[in-house]
Specification:
Elements (H helix, E strand, L loop, with lengths): L2 H10 L8 H28 L4 H5 L10 H13 L5 H15 L9 H19 L2 H7 L10 H29 L5 H29 L3 H27 L1 H4 L16 H7 L12 H4 L11 E3 L10 H5 L10 E5 L2 E4 L2 E3 L6 E4 L6 E5 L15 E3 L5 E3 L2 E4 L11 E3 L4 E4 L2 E3 L5 E3 L3 E5 L2 E4 L1 E6 L2 E5 L2 E4 L8 E6 L9 E5 L2 E2 L9 E4 L7 E5 L2 E2 L19 E5 L17 E2 L4 H5 L3 H5 L17
Helix pairs in contact: 4-5, 5-6, 5-10, 6-8, 6-10, 7-8, 8-9, 9-10
Length: 599
């Protein structure tokens, strides 16, 4: 594709990332701060193993280090130096310490400061959560609110802000357990904080997608600046101290949890002192047998408990600790289905990906945001789908039209198909696993910011609209500390029907887009450049290939970006295997799903 064709094609896509000036300023400062971060980590190693910064600093005779304020501020400053936003980290935490300590514990250490950072992020998100409704009822935007796509985007923001609040709260609740596997707890926290950032980014995506509302979008972005920075600060602290906290217990400090009043608990659910409570092993033990015994059966011809999947979903108990199984008999089900965040441990299985099919046609052109355009949406944790087909039949002219979105943590899709054009499969957030699936589409047809692994899947680009080119992936990691990315392992990349359009492995939706393709077959349809540019910073992406084969796997002509790694080592590739990347041994065996833990 020549430059002019590429430019015109890019303009035709509505989901273009606008490079914010503040982000540019951050990138210019990054190199200068690398040494500060390295030195700060060294100091943190001493802090978390029992020494205080005050003791270390006492050798400096030029300051009065007996002051509790100096000691607390020193600890905060050192901890905040590892974050992307050290000034907002320091000012917010210093102010919170002064307001809440009342002279108690004047020298808080790393784990206490981390909890405080979560409290600060939680408070800011609580303040933010009412913003969408305020905008809807405001006279300032009464003319713009008539736009259906903007209305949809604002509803998205309301949902996403509340989801982010829940993920912050989950992070604190997980620390209440005490003991256990500290590495697992920290990985859970990193996952939920990564998702909280993704939730906030998705709100802005929807507003930009609505178009023509730049003032409103900038107002929301400005209102979100504190919450996004504070969440990023907590994520950075959790990520940097992960290795040194590995051998420590993390008792919760009740004094720091008083922010969670009864009102907040009612709004965002009692997450139980034992969270995370995944489905019991005995309940998952036989889940992926060919025909597990269902709680409910759906059949379009009336031979089951319900004729539609949506009716069956309404009968699922909320926040169940036991598996709830729905069997959907062979047939075409024309409906939109949502497994919302209050439906835990749900399994839906059918009679085969080409025999039990859920189909709808929500899309951007007709006024539905990408986030809610999915024919099937899975948000409740521990979701499993098996032998099901998911379609969006809106067609390429309708632009973004999702077949399935998963925001479900530790979700599994086994022998399923996903069929649409632009934005087929939205792997939005949290940890996900796909095995023996088939995915078809055109532009960015596997996209999102989950930590997701695809194994033994068939990935099939199809012919897009004239003037468009195909991009298989569009990964959207926006923060270097997020533990997210796409890992495509032992898959088949082949064209669907007569594909003539230029087709790339992917393009970066955000600055830290991370996609690794390994041990997979690549057909000759693939453009030898491999990757297409977007408006993200291509120097910070991570695009890697490892031991792929087939005519499209030759890496000699790949783009020469700093972030492209055409031939990574075994050790580098292993980081993106099921066990290393999504810690699959902690949750996949209970579901009896076949998977390869390593490369």
């Amino acid at each position: 594709m020549d430059t002019e064709e590429n430019t015109n094609s890019m303009k035709s896509y509505s989901k273009i990332e606008e490079a914010a000036q503040s982000e540019e300023a951050f990138r210019r400062k990054t190199r200068k701060r690398l040494m500060i971060i390295v030195l700060s980590v060294l100091v943190l190693l001493i802090i978390v193993t029992g020494s205080s910064i005050g003791i270390l600093a006492s050798r400096n005779k030029s300051k009065d280090l007996s002051s509790p304020t100096y000691s607390a501020n020193s600890n905060i400053r050192t901890l905040c130096n590892v974050t992307r936003y050290p000034e907002s980290c320091y000012s917010s935490m210093s102010s919170a310490i002064k307001a809440s300590s009342n002279g108690e514990n004047p020298n808080p250490q790393t784990k206490e400061l981390f909890l405080l950072s979560l409290k600060i992020a939680f408070d800011e998100l609580m303040n933010l959560s009412s913003l969408p409704q305020k905008i809807i009822s405001s006279q300032n935007y009464r003319n713009e609110i008539n736009d259906p796509l903007l209305q949809s985007a604002l509803r998205d923001c309301e949902t996403l802000f509340n989801d982010a609040i829940d993920h912050i709260k989950e992070s604190i609740s997980s620390m209440q357990v005490g003991g256990g596997n500290t590495s697992k707890i920290i990985d859970d926290i990193r996952t939920w904080l990564s998702t909280a950032i993704t939730d906030q980014e998705t709100c802005i995506d929807g507003l930009k997608e609505a178009g023509k509302h730049l003032t409103l979008t900038n107002e929301v972005r400005y209102a979100m600046s504190n919450s996004t920075e504070f969440t990023s600060n907590s994520l950075a602290i959790a990520s940097i101290v992960l290795t040194v906290l590995d051998d420590l217990q993390i008792p919760i400090h009740r004094r720091l949890l008083r922010v969670f009043s009864d009102d907040h608990s009612q709004d965002h659910g009692d997450l139980d002192a034992g969270f995370p409570i995944w489905v019991h092993i005995r309940d998952r033990r036989f889940l992926l047998e060919e025909k597990p015994k269902p709680n409910l059966t759906v059949a379009w011809d009336g031979s089951g408990d319900f004729k539609t999947i949506k009716e069956a979903v309404e009968s699922i108990p909320k926040r169940s600790k036991s598996q709830f199984i729905i069997y959907v008999k062979e047939g075409l089900y024309l409906e939109n289905v949502t497994i919302d965040k209050n439906y835990w441990n749900v399994m839906i299985y059918g009679d085969g990906m080409n025999r039990t099919i859920v189909s709808a046609r929500n899309n951007k052109v007709d006024g539905v945001s990408t986030f809610f355009s999915g024919t099937f949406i899975a948000a409740g944790r521990g979701f499993i789908a098996k032998d099901m087909g998911f379609r969006n039949t809106a067609g390429p002219q309708k632009e973004q039209a999702v077949a399935l979105r998963s925001s479900s943590d530790q979700s599994i899709f086994y022998r399923c198909s996903f069929d649409a054009y632009q934005d087929t499969l939205y792997t939005h957030s949290n940890r996900q696993f796909y095995r023996d699936c088939q995915i078809t589409g055109t532009v960015d047809f596997i996209f999102g910011n989950a930590a997701v692994v695809f194994q033994n899947c068939t990935i099939q680009p199809r012919q897009p609209l004239p003037g468009q080119y195909n991009t298989i992936t569009a990964q959207s990691k926006s923060d270097p500390n997020q533990n997210t990315g796409m890992s495509i392992q032992r898959c088949q990349m082949t064209p669907l029907d007569n594909l003539t359009a230029t087709t790339y492995l992917g393009r970066p939706w955000r600055d830290y887009a991370t996609t690794v393709i390994m041990q997979s077959y690549m057909g000759e349809f693939l453009d030898p450049l491999g990757w297409a540019s977007w408006e993200a910073n291509i120097s910070t992406v991570y695009y890697a290939e490892f031991r792929n084969f087939g005519p499209g796997s030759m890496t000699g002509r790949r783009v020469r970006w700093p972030g492209v790694r055409p031939n990574i080592t075994y050790e580098e590739a292993e980081k993106f295997a099921v066990e290393s990347f999504i810690h699959g041994s902690q949750w996949l065996p209970q579901a009896q799903v076949t998977y390869d833990g390593t490369i």
